[in-house]
Design brief:
about 270 residues, alpha/beta, Rossmann fold, 8 helices, 7 strands
Length: about 270
């Protein structure tokens, strides 16, 4: 069975062409989200960023437009169902369709498990996992109308193994992998592929704070990572383009580590 006629193609120069496609990335105004947004924008897709910080949203849109992309931003709290639905409607209103959703919004609180409050647990789970469910649910009708779509969920290597100081975060990211599989099974018949990316130790605002809070973290990461460095948000541009394009049309329900080899070691 061949791919739909309007699927993104590989031009003769070898670059994926996502022209005419629209994507939404939650938490896309910095870090991994902006790294993915940059890759997708460079491939020709129109970009709608969702974030709660207006100043960061504006700066990210400026960066993407400087690359020649069609880009806009929406202030949204993706833990609220109505705001998730409004976000998807905004993508259709601004760009006429929705093809790709990147569920990237996330947070963490680092404590030993006995010290978390219930409110802290709920904050991390709602931000990291419930938001992905709500946004995916909101995106489903728009992707049906477009004839299919791609959902990219941002998990973590902490869905593979544990850490004493990230109980709620690890639980949310393990849940993200299982949610990915469930959505992939449910929506494959609708030509919607759902996959997860599992970042390793990436140089972002969250991990910079972690290096301040956890003594020796920087040295341990470098010692265990075969690549010998922390990841950069730009390292996620390629995987985003691959999972958004037609090359991944038969890839569904997977969880792909992007961690410089960190999780490959016992």
């Amino acid at each position: 069975m061949s791919a739909p006629a309007d699927s993104p193609t590989f031009p003769t120069n070898g670059r994926v062409d996502l022209s005419g496609r629209t994507f939404v990335v939650t938490g896309g105004n910095g870090g991994i989200g902006l790294g993915m947004a940059t890759g997708l924008a460079q491939a020709g897709a129109a970009v709608l960023i969702a974030g709660r910080n207006a100043a960061k949203n504006a700066a990210a849109v400026k960066t993407l437009k400087a690359l020649g992309a069609k880009a806009a931003a929406v202030e949204a709290d993706v833990t609220v169902q109505a705001e998730c639905r409004a976000l998807i409607e905004a993508a259709s209103d601004k760009f006429g369709r929705l093809d790709i959703l990147v569920n990237n919004a996330g947070t963490t609180i680092r404590k030993q498990p006995q010290h978390y409050t219930l409110e802290e647990w709920k904050l991390v789970l709602d931000t990291n996992l419930t938001s992905a469910f709500l946004c995916s649910q909101a995106a489903y009708p728009a992707m049906l109308e477009a004839g299919g779509g791609k959902i990219i969920n941002i998990g973590s290597m902490l869905s593979i193994f544990g850490a004493s100081f990230t109980g709620p975060y690890g639980a949310s990211k393990g849940g993200m992998v299982q949610l990915t599989k469930s959505l992939a099974c449910a929506w494959a018949k609708d030509n919607i592929q759902v996959n997860a990316v599992l970042p390793g130790w990436i140089d972002t605002e969250l991990t910079r704070q972690g290096r301040k809070e956890i003594a020796g973290l920087h040295e341990r990461v470098l010692a265990r990572t075969p690549a010998g460095r922390w990841g950069d948000p730009a390292d996620f541009a390629g995987i985003a383009v691959f999972l958004a394009g037609s090359a991944s049309d038969f890839l569904n329900g997977t969880a792909i580590p992007v961690d410089g080899g960190y999780s490959s070691q016992g």
